[in-house]
Please model this.
Amino acid sequence: DSGVTQTPKHLITATGQRVTLRCSPRSGDLSVYWYQQSLDQGLQFLIQYYNGEERAKGNILERFSAQQFPDLHSELNLSSLELGDSALYFCASSVGQGAFPYEQYFGPGTRLTVT
Amino acid sequence: EDQVTQSPEALRLQEGESSSLNCSYTVSGLRGLFWYRQDPGKGPEFLFTLYSAGEEKEKERLKATLTKKESFLHITAPKPEDSATYLCAVQGYRANNLFFGTGTRLTVIP
Model:
């Protein structure tokens, strides 16, 4: 158990809908990262938050957004969903931003299916 | 641009048959190279971090090594429970996120 929690475990929704994925980082970790894993693309970085502020963006679509709250949990919002958004969404956390040690610990993921 | 290439894509081993997985990387200023294990439908599980060429780390039947261009994950006398996808990732000084390879899917046959 990495100490990172994600809810829900599974989500099935229809095209055009909006969903929210939730992540709680390990105790003491200030950075939260969101990754998307699809069958044909592997793990792709979406966005990073550090202590409530957005710090880096990767291949995140404009239909997607995220935020980190004062208690450090984070939410990833996906809107106007398309079939191609079906994937596993992982949250990871680390101690700091660019601070040693650098490893990131991953949650169990949310499997999103868009029908 | 950061690049990570893992080979082979898939590997089938008999129980006890040792082998190595390869991770070739290109990154501007390596902060760390990471190995993760991922079981189907689960989150990646952290195994090792390597920081500089020549470094080696071991955990049970796994040993990770690092050169300036690649890393190897050596699996000694594997068991069926070692079956998983092994992911390699790099982090450069210009980014905080991890850049992942597509993984090696290892199957160990009893």
Q: What stands out?
A: The interface with chain A takes residues 31-32, 34, 36, 41-46, 49, 87, 89, 91, 93, 95-103 of chain B (CB under 8 Å). Chain B has a mean pLDDT of 95.
